[in-house]
């Protein structure tokens, strides 16, 4: 197990941990969360042995193999698949020794090393590496390209694949979803759920944490607090702990009054009704969750546009792409004030192409794109972070677009994005990716857009800033079109989805769970379609080969669903036993005597809690069984 006792960790003059305690047992999966700069990455360095404690102990089993996701790439000439295979260092050592033994014709060593190679699963290593790369969005052609040919985000995917390739007892992942799209994240979730070792990951994706981890380790005020469950459970538990604080109450009431005022004002207006409904949903969650974020340093809104047009944008018969290469055909899309649209689709299908065309960075290859007279676009994309002036401060960036505004007004506005005091005047060259993203959003929010085009806006943002962005988007009066791998953001800020796939943009009638199922079917179809054709004159072999590959793809999807269903059934059985014990205790007539009223009250509360959990588990179990049955039917057809 990992056992941290009375740990003090310091980097330079800053004390990150003091008297910290944490215990993780083998097989547990924990998310490590905390404010930027709190010491999460330093704790990872401590676990890897790169740092030593300033006081206290950090104990790990001496025979544990540790894998981690590196943040740098040091070999640009390696082919992508070879780079991933390098993650299995024991395998590479055996291969090197085998090569030397063959050169010296050492028959005994050759025989021994072939056995070791078999034990290390060396004969399937290449296939496993390619499977990892495919899951993370690499095509067969990309697997054979040099590492140096890829952009920074794709190199991070290679580092992630390399970490997953490494045999390990402890896996440390630092922001693994930052450079992934939604379909790659869903694949990674399934992979991590079946990972047998101990997992510790840093992430700002709450849905990803909920899906993967069973504990949350919260680093706050130089202490580590371990919470049972995923991020949503942590949020509820922390909210309960902080609910008595007057500061939490005041902030909660202010937010509640603001939302109620908006709902009362716009609920009856047809053009605003959908936005009012989203505020009502947010209000239902607000009372329970607001205290958990009382210490958030972020609070901002998008300034309301002076004028607006309807429609804001109207694209008809659109042919979109790059140069003479069309990516999307016959695109029809009209954006009106109040629209809340999320774009879904597999990697490379054309989501960014669509947003860039609407933003004016690309011209349509065909069709008609009409822009409203008063259209004001706020466009956010990752490449824009590189366009910030490295030698200018946040205040100077804002002064350039608002030269006549009072400096104090600009400083107050930047404070909502946590640029306060000296940080307002610090040059961008010293900023992290998250700070640059916050500044880019601040510049957009100031300019009073009436259409927001957002391409992965949450990359590099921490959980508190993501929550602030979600609230700001809920209050935004204009239209929103967003591509994001953050499912909580999509669920909280969009009313409809468009599916970008197979060269088309079409309405998607379903939610994100439906999209996950659509992806399973899509991958199975792709596996069958991409099956290599055999020589002419042997159609039977071709058909059988395609069927086997389709069936293999479905079996790969089947295993985690079966495991999930079995886990839910086991948990439900345990809960039924607990409920039976409680109800047996409630059957004792002596329990209803006045002297035992506290015990009775506790048992009734426990019964209510267990019945509520029972309903949740039964619903989840039935859904898992339905999904499993659907996949089994598809598998039977494929075989």
From TrEMBL:
Listed InterPro entries: AAA+_ATPase, ABC_tran_Xtn, ABC_transporter-like_ATP-bd, ABC_transporter-like_CS, ABCF, P-loop_NTPase
Coiled-coil regions, chain positions: 551-634
Keywords: ATP-binding, Coiled coil, Nucleotide-binding, Repeat
GO MF terms held by the record: ATP binding; ATP hydrolysis activity
Listed PROSITE patterns: ABC_TRANSPORTER_1 (PS00211), ABC_TRANSPORTER_2 (PS50893)
SMART domains: AAA (SM00382)
Superkingdom of the organism of origin: Bacteria
SUPFAM superfamilies: P-loop containing nucleoside triphosphate hydrolases
Region (Disordered): 529-549
Ranges for domain ABC transporter: 2-246, 310-527
Leader peptide range in chain numbering: none
Family the UniProt entry places it in: Belongs to the ABC transporter superfamily. ABCF family. YheS subfamily.
Protein name (database record): Probable ATP-binding protein YheS
Gene source species: Pseudomonas fluvialis
